[in-house]
Amino acid sequence: MAENVDTSSRGSCNISETSDSKLRKILRKQKRCESILEKNENVKCVKFPTRFIFVGNHGLICGIGCEELITAFEPFGKIEDIILPQNKSYSFIVYTKSEEAEMAMRNLQGVKLEHMKQPLYLSFADKVPSNHKLFNNENFPPGLILIKDFFTEQQEEKILQCIKWNDSDSQQLKHRRVKHFGYEFKYGINNIDKNDPLDEKIPEICHPYLAKLIEEKYINTMPDQLTVNYYLPGQGIPVHIDTHSAFEDCIVVFNLGSQIVMEFHHPNGCHVPILLPRYSVLIMSKESRYLWSHGITPRKMDVIPNQNGLLKSVPRGVRTSFTFRIVRKKPCDCVYYEQCDSQNDKKIKNVIEGNQAKQLEETHVLQVYNEIADHFSHTRYKEWPKVATFLNSLPSGSLLIDVGCGNGKYLGKHQNLIEIGCDFSHKLIEICRSNGLEVFVADNLKLPLRSGIADACISVAVLHHMATETRRKKAIEELVRILKVNGRALIYVWAMEQKSEKGSSNYLKASKDAKISETDCERHQIEFMGTKLPVHINKTQFLQQDIFVPWNKVDENKNSSSATVYHRYYHVFVKGELETLLLSVANVKIIESYYDQGNWCVIIEKVL
């Protein structure tokens, strides 16, 4: 140990108790780390001992792995879990008892260990991130199958002998050696050339095992591409998703030579470590293949649970993986647009940064609707039929909250319901009140309503005005919060796809304009805080998800043909995006999804 600063056993020490300059420095940095933690993970640091220790300055991004942490913290108690969030500079240690964590805190706070570049900045945490999963077969990503003991030692030996690593066809990459069969995977473009198959096909010795997987209905088709990876202890593979446009569903991995821990990551931050035993077969299909990324962290040992559920470190051996795939003949049309390279035109992009979002919404949503409220209200008076159907289906006496009620066109028309509306625009709320409706001004990200108050909610043409996915998710969470358990909500958002199987929407049918091109779109742009967004040409197909939509407010002087143009911000939703967003929210069950005249629509139910 190069440094040792004697601090309190508590996570946050009292600076007044000592004048030590090193302690002051540690506590300043520790406080900064705690602020980052609460912001990123919704985890708070506390001053009393708990089982959870937050290591504020040692994580994956700092080059720290499980082996370094277990070496430092194992001497002070039994470790139940070690959590290293992806691309973060912090980590968590979970002991079986708070007394063990208190002992570690007393001995390690402010200590700089030989294998670490900085002193440890530690705090007690009230919990660990909710999106982390322990080693548990029940926590597998959907579509992931692990078959243990698929091979015997003799079978493994014969399979490994069929690979000749000394020939010119094998490649030495940074963290592993690879060899391809059937088709070469070109790492420069993360794809294959389907018109340039290799002479060397999948080795015959592999065919019986693949046929067995087909016979037992684990896979449907015989693979035609194989990548063999050879890993020495300490080597790994970066987190990735196998390219959608290159390969079909179902990726089969033979895990030979040594066990390994493979890390799976969901886009919402959920992290699941999976232990792949030697002689096992891993099959990635559906969501686990298309949505979740996977990788192997380069390190010489893995931390895995023993029979008692406690963690132990196990050295890695030489490992060889056989990854079998089916070459795709047509573009991928999966629902995971953000991850799909075949559907780049539909990718969900947050072109607006978080700090800009609130200002953008205030300038190009709230202020605009306050300016156009009267004119807007004159054009919005008729209920959409399917929204009316939802409202008429509600039991008599139900309390309905219309979140983003606009001019209140869905309120006051259903005598069997108790109806309340809210909107961020005070001008639209004034129009509602003038019509005798029960309404109030509110931000749909912070609804001033008691949790579980509503039997039903509607949010019609509101969510698409939120400028980031985080804010859209927060709006849904508020909607769910105010619902009773088993209460239902109807959500409408504008669809990027203005054509369905039944033809064009009324929005496009109303157009007499010629089609526009990407160049036309680029010519009409508005810059907001350094970000340029296109101005959509009304009654035409959308060319981008994040856009300004003009509203022409005719001058009140009837003798004048002049009009003032206002630009409203929209994020138009692609197919499946709303459902994916809803599934990331707790306590939500999707009852029905449908397309209605240029809108994606979902009915949800709040569950326990």
Which residue ranges are poorly predicted, with pLDDT under 50 across at least 5 consecutive positions?
Answer: 1-19, 512-523
Mean pLDDT: 83
Can you count the beta strands?
Answer: 33
CA radius of gyration is 29 Å
Sheet having the most strands? 7 strands, antiparallel
Q: Using the alpha-carbon principal axes, give the shape.
A: globular
Structural class: alpha+beta
Tally of contiguous helical segments = 13
Instruction: Work out the strand percent.
Output: 25-35%
- Largest sheet, order of strands side by side? 6-16-13-20-11-8-7
Into which percent range does the helicity of residues fall? 10-25%
Describe this structure in words.
By secondary structure, this protein is of the alpha+beta class. It contains 13 helices and 33 strands. The protein has a 7-stranded antiparallel β-sheet. A hairpin with a 2-residue loop joins strand 26 (about 500) and strand 27 (about 505). Helix 7 (about 355-380) packs parallel to helix 9 (about 425-435).
Give a short overview.
With 608 residues, the chain is of the alpha+beta class.
Write the layout of secondary structure elements.
Layout: H1 21-41, E1 45-46, E2 52-55, H2 66-73, E3 79-83, E4 91-95, H3 98-108, E5 122-125, E6 144-147, H4 153-161, E7 171-172, E8 177-181, E9 185-186, E10 191-192, H5 207-215, E11 225-231, E12 237-240, E13 251-256, E14 260-265, E15 271-276, E16 280-284, H6 286-290, E17 293-296, E18 301-305, E19 311-315, E20 319-325, H7 354-378, H8 385-392, E21 399-403, E22 418-423, H9 426-434, E23 439-441, E24 454-460, H10 469-482, E25 483-494, E26 499-500, E27 503-504, H11 506-509, H12 518-523, E28 525-528, E29 531-534, E30 546-554, E31 563-571, H13 577-583, E32 588-595, E33 599-606
Parallel strand pairs: 21-22, 21-24, 22-23, 24-25
Antiparallel strand pairs: 1-5, 2-4, 2-5, 3-4, 6-16, 7-8, 8-11, 9-10, 11-20, 12-17, 13-16, 13-20, 14-15, 14-17, 18-19, 25-33, 26-27, 28-29, 30-31, 32-33
Helix pairs in contact: 7-9
